[in-house]
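This part of the workshop introduces the protein records we will be handling. The question running through the whole workshop is how a given chain folds. To make this concrete, we reproduce a full record directly below:
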Amino acid sequence: MARPRQTIVSLDDTPYYHCCSRVVRKAFLCGIDNSTGENFEHRRDWVDSRILELATIFAIDICAYAVMSNHLHVVIKVDADKAKHWSDKEVLVQWHKGFKGTLLTQKFVKGEDLNEFEFNTVNDCITQYRQRLVDISWFMRSLSEPIARMANKEDKCTGRFWEGRFKSQALLDEAAVLSCMAYVDLNPIRAKMAVTPETSDYTSIQRRITSAIKGEQPTALLAFVGNERQDMPNGLMFSVKDYIVLVEDTGRIIREDKRGAISSTSQDILNRLNIPADNWLKIATEFGSLFKGAVGSLPALTEYCEHLERKRRQGASNCQRWLCA
């Protein structure tokens, strides 16, 4: 039985989550449908654009994503502190970027006078919107519903386009986050949709490589900020260059027609993550099948389960086997 979302998400333990949605119909999300010969490749752009748009609305950062033929992956970081520090007006401005709100919230943003009852009503809306802007379920709902409507209109049909629930798993530590990001970024290579990360269309790794060539990082994605230090800015550990090298090295090994090896730079990252090279290759290719629930070290997994009052540490044996040297 599927678990209620509140028994899976614990922002006290981690702000990082891996989410996956799959289509329910035989028709492909994108690419060429072998049963009909129709090409739905343009739908990948719908999803790509919507993911990046939502990152400007919600207090949720995009770490990695990949849009595949019949499913999508996204690794996110919930920035609850950002939402807490938004003023009431800022909350409404953010909400109105993607949703209509109400006549009263629109009046409040414009600075128009409100009576006491109207003001209290707006305050209730602000409280609700502030919660929704850090809600993973609202984020995924806001991603999937517009795509489903456009696809149904294009297919001239009604009904579900996506599975009823998206899958999500907590990423409890640095090793779990980086492993999952690499797994997501390498999806097109494993599926033989691309031969290199830079040719993997509609993925975060392609965006990172394109920006890195210019000496930049993509503003739409959560940035890599280097090694841990005092006054650490919001971002991912390690340098973007090191991460790209790690994904490139791993991608070469995954390809059957090209020999490859873990470079010294990539080995340094794996040493810091305490993951043996052989384990890394297993994780990068089979993350989705190895880990069904929360992912992380045993102490982190134990604390996560205690906070959510779960009696079993689902997946503890695989976390210990593959993420602990």
Q: What stands out?
A: The mean pLDDT is 90. The CA atoms of residues 28 and 212 lie 32 Å apart.
